[in-house]
Structure to design on (152 residues):
């Protein structure tokens, strides 16, 4: 399957519905609260997983992402990932000291890199309600408001 930027954008933004809801409570594992849910495109052609991770000691250190699950059995591709700060800024182009967004690119995929390797700084995402709003606007799916209300 060819992953051009138009197809990546389509996968991120196509309407989706919940196929397998997340657990009612986050699960604690190695100092992080975790949960996942499965989504399917409204036309039934594409499957996805949403992951949610929040550091227990430092809740601003979070990760929420959308993963495409190809039906042909090829590798899963993280299309979109929002992160809070999770490390010191140790170089002029480091993004780890601030909230940031990773978006899959055709270039990264064609080079065999992590699809979402590149990051864009985003100072507007600071807490759970902030990240769920940004995430839902980018990657819309039916029932998103009810799901994220579980974690407030």
């Amino acid at each position: 399957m060819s992953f051009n930027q138009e197809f990546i954008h389509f996968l991120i933004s196509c309407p989706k519905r919940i196929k397998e809801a997340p657990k009612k409570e986050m699960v604690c594992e190695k100092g992080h609260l975790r949960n996942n849910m499965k989504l399917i495109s409204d036309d039934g052609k594409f499957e996805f997983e949403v992951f949610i991770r929040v550091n227990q000691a430092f809740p601003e250190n979070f990760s929420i992402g959308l993963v495409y699950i190809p039906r042909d059995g090829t590798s899963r591709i993280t299309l979109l990932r929002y992160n809070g700060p999770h490390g010191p800024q140790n170089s002029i182009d480091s993004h780890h000291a601030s909230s940031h967004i990773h978006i899959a690119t055709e270039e990264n995929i064609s080079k065999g890199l992590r699809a979402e390797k590149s990051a864009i700084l985003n100072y507007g995402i600071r807490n759970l309600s902030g990240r769920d709003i940004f995430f839902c606007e980018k990657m819309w799916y039916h029932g998103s408001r009810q799901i994220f209300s579980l974690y407030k």
In short: The first strand starts at residue 16 and ends at 20.
